């Protein structure tokens, strides 16, 4: 059977865009943190995004092949990473008036964990997507995802160069960014369904 290249490209792009709109916010926060405090490094944001979403795609493919043995809802516990980062940032701000930069995921591992946690619910979309594809279509879809991750990172970085965004960051970013981290992390945990595993019945 001949692969429908155009159809596969459109399907892959549509699936990625629909499941990663909120990732733009997370990426923008990371780039704002970088501009304000030089952490995390730009390469860590890019690499962490590829590692996190790469893991999501890998798990989705395994699940589509019927090889996943561990409920992926457990990834929701990674939502505790941004919660911890946000709480730490708020505590630091409360302790001193000199902390004006936003809380940041400084290490590559924490950036990747945020990407993995934030995209955990994408598996619900990606598993049936890959399940209905042959090998060629699957490889093309993965390639499209890889390109779009770069597009997302570039767009988020560009957004933080907008004068209004930078101005707002200077006025309220040191409080808002930690609060956003906590909100994102809490949302990740709740949406993952991990509570249903912890409290069956």
Describe the structure concisely.
With about 200 residues, the protein is an all-alpha fold.
- Based on secondary structure, the structural category is mainly alpha
The total count of strands amounts to 0
Into which percentage range does the β-strand content fall? Answer: under 5%
N-to-C order of helices and strands: HHHHHHHHH
Radius of gyration: 18 Å
Fraction of residues in helices?
over 70%
N→C terminal distance: 46 Å
Overall geometry: globular
Average per-residue pLDDT, rounded, comes to 78
Throw out a few tags for this protein.
single chain; about 200 residues; mainly alpha
Explain what you see.
It is a single chain. By secondary structure, the chain is mainly α. It has one domain (5-193). The protein is built from 9 helices and no strands. It has helices at residues 5-19, 21-37, 42-64, 80-95, 108-118, 123-131, 135-159, 163-192, 194-198. The longest helix has 30 residues, at 163-192. The chain is globular, with a radius of gyration of 18 Å. The termini are far apart.
């Amino acid at each position: 059977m001949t692969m429908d290249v155009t159809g596969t490209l459109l399907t892959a792009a549509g699936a990625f865009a629909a499941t990663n709109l909120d990732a733009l916010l997370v990426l923008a926060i990371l780039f704002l943190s970088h501009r304000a405090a030089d952490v995390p490094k730009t390469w860590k944001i890019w690499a962490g995004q590829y590692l996190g979403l790469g893991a999501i795609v890998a798990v989705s493919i395994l699940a589509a092949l019927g090889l996943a043995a561990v409920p992926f809802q457990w990834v929701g516990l990674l939502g505790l990473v941004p919660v911890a980062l946000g709480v730490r940032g708020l505590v630091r701000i409360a302790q001193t008036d000199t902390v004006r930069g936003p809380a940041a995921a400084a290490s590559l591992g924490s950036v990747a964990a945020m990407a993995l946690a934030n995209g955990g619910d994408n598996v619900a979309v990606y598993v049936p997507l890959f399940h209905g594809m042959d090998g060629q279509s699957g490889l093309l879809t993965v390639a499209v995802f890889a390109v779009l991750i770069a597009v997302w990172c570039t767009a988020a970085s560009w957004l933080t160069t907008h004068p209004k965004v930078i101005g707002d960051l200077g006025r309220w970013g040191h409080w808002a960014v930690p609060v956003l981290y906590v909100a994102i992390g809490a949302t990740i945990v709740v949406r993952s369904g991990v509570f249903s595993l912890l409290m069956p019945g």
